[in-house]
Amino acid sequence: MPEQPAIDLPNLPAPDSGILVTLFLTVRKVARSRAFYSEVLGGQVVLEENPCIVKLANSWVIMNPGGGPTPDKPDVSVVDYEPGDTVSSFMNLRVADIDALYREWSAKGAEFLTPPLDRGAEKRCYVRDPDGYLIEVGQATGMLEGKLAEKRPEDLPG
Fold first, then answer.
1. Residue 99 belongs to a domain with what CATH number?
2. For the residues of 95-110, what is the DSSP string, one character each?
3. DSSP string over the chain
4. Are 106 and 126 contained in the same domain?
């Protein structure tokens, strides 16, 4: 009988009451993604596989390969993300020191689209994980003093 992976029970995303939010990512290679979220981004592995769970700061990322329908989702297949130049959602990480994390994660192999850019209300940059998922990394700067991003026409009412 294969050995069961160890579970870090105190860090398992299992609330005593209410709810907590986790992010599920469909990944092609669990070990590769687990290494990125734990070794590069500094998360803590809670469960190695089936599914992989990594605690990242005050949230959890759950990773597993895709698959066909199951009894609890009889008409739904979970498929691999197809990375490209368009996305409809992404993870947003808020950090205390974006410049330090940019240097640290770059040294560990993270490939950012650009260095952190000052957007007035915040400094931010983007990185992709091994499956191509987009991750925004941002630090509140001007917004701490009431400076917000400029409204775009599509943000305005009407």
1. 3.30.720.110
2. -S-HHHHHHHHHHTT-
3. -PPPPPB-GGGSS--SSS---EEEEE-S-HHHHHHIIIIIT--EEEESSSSEEEEETTEEEEEE--B--BTTBTT--B-----SS--S--EEEE-S-HHHHHHHHHHTT--BSSS-EE-SSEEEEEEE-TT--EEEEEEE-GGGGT--PPPPGGGS--
4. yes
Length of the chain: 158
Residues paired with residue 22 on neighbouring β-strands, in sequence order: 60
Do residues 111 and 105 touch, judged by C-beta distance below 8 A? no
- CA-based max dimension of the chain: 62
- Decide which of 20, 48, 69 is a domain's last residue: 69
pLDDT tens by residue, 87-106: 999 999 999 999 999 999 99
Instruction: Please state the pTM of the whole predicted model.
Output: 0.89
More confident residue, 122 or 5: 122
